[in-house]
Design goal:
Radius of gyration: 21 Å
Largest sheet: 8 strands, mixed
Strand order of the largest sheet: 3-2-1-4-6-5-7-8
Number of helices: 14
Oligomer: single chain
Length: 384
């Protein structure tokens, strides 16, 4: 039938016109003569976002802005659109973040490959070494080690989703609730596509310019949603995942791309202090869940305060994550809270280690985390 471009939105009046207009150009140029739709799935914006969309004069592509149903969150916006797409018979859904400043029409062409050749097309970006810390330390190491899929941006936000995958996601969403209705949606999409043996591609989209966030200040809610979804995916798909040797992914490239990463400003000292404060306040909780490991975490605190390299070793981070993933079945809330505190420490350590590295050097540090996850997969046998 055609392609739906789905844009979840909330108070993005300064950027939404550019995203919608660019998506319309891409649909008209690369998918002409189809019954395409751009749906802005809004969460009740109060800054004029809806009015901006309604004021756009776009020809040859239908544009709608609708208030999604359900609890507030990105996932609710996406699932509302997926349901509309399935009911409307669309061949694929292209997800775009509403705060994008770097989207180009050819993104639609690459992500639109989900309409025919692929179950899922994930993004591949050039990003600042300090951008995407949840991806670098948790989502990517998990999808590559546990699931065996080389998907560098499993929670990238800009996806191409086939109609087949959309149907599976709608059938399975309640198993991942409530986090799937918020920021858990992206990892739910990626892990489900991998678990269902769908053909997956990575679309090289160049640089992602958007609204970056300091991990210590702005990402607690997102981390809770994503980490719980990551662990739920492990619990649900572990038996399937461990039988695989690897999942190959194709690389889709355009003839050009802008490769100038957006600088992300972080306060490394503040991130270290935030971890130390949280750890001291919740050390008893970590002792309850992790036992003697807290002695090793005490050493991490000391090394961070002294500015030593690799203050939080990758191997220790991997062991603690898998231990808490197993514990999650019994103590979900406590495990998530403990994992968040440890993640603050791992991020602080990563920021400190990568401060003087270029992007390539920082990527090597990330691959070190992946290796540590692979080397400690045996800890998940407790799930059998």
């Amino acid at each position: 039938m055609g392609i739906m471009v789905l844009i979840p939105s909330y108070n993005v009046a300064p950027t939404i016109a550019y995203v919608v207009s660019t998506a319309a150009k891409g649909l008209k140029e690369y998918f002409p003569d189809q019954d395409n739709l751009i749906l802005v799935s809004d969460g009740g914006s109060t800054n004029g976002t809806v009015e901006v969309v309604k004021s756009l004069k776009i020809k040859d592509v239908e544009v709608r802005v609708e208030r999604y149903k359900g609890i507030p969150g990105k996932g609710s916006a996406i699932l509302y659109g997926l349901e509309m797409a399935v009911n409307g018979g669309y061949d694929a859904v292209i997800m775009l973040d509403s705060d994008l400043r770097s989207v180009e029409p050819w993104w639609i062409r690459l992500l639109g490959e989900a309409a025919g050749s692929y179950g899922l097309v994930t993004p591949l970006y050039v990003r600042d070494k300090h951008d995407g810390t949840i991806t670098k330390t948790l989502a990517y190491p998990t999808i590559k080690s546990v699931f065996g899929a080389d998907v560098r941006q499993p929670i990238g936000g800009d996806f191409g989703i086939s109609s087949t995958l959309a149907k599976v996601l709608l059938e399975r969403k309640e198993e991942f609730a409530p986090d799937v209705y918020r920021f858990g949606i992206d990892f739910f999409i990626t892990s489900t596509a991998v678990a269902e043996d769908m053909r997956i591609a990575r679309a090289d989209l160049g640089s992602k310019i958007h609204s970056p966030k300091d991990p210590g200040k702005h990402l607690k809610g997102m981390f809770f949603d994503v980490s719980r979804t990551v662990i739920r995916a492990i619990l649900k798909y572990w038996r399937k995942a461990k039988s695989r040797r690897g999942v190959s992914t194709d690389l889709l490239k355009w003839r050009y791309s802008w490769r100038c990463p957006q600088h992300v400003e972080v306060d490394i000292k503040a991130n270290i202090n935030r971890f130390i404060t949280e750890y001291r306040e919740k050390r008893r909780l970590l002792r309850e869940l992790l036992g003697g490991y807290t002695d090793e975490i005490d050493i991490v605190v000391d090394r961070l305060k002294r500015g030593l390299p690799e203050a939080f070793p990758d191997d220790l981070w991997a062991k603690l994550f898998f231990k808490l993933a197993v514990e999650f079945r019994r103590e979900m809330e406590k495990s998530t809270e403990a994992l968040y505190i440890l993640w603050l420490g791992k991020v602080a350590s990563y920021l400190q280690d990568s401060a003087d590295l270029d992007i390539e050097g920082a990527e090597k540090r990330v691959e070190g985390i992946v290796r540590a996850f692979k080397e400690n997969l045996r800890l998940l046998t407790a799930l059998d």
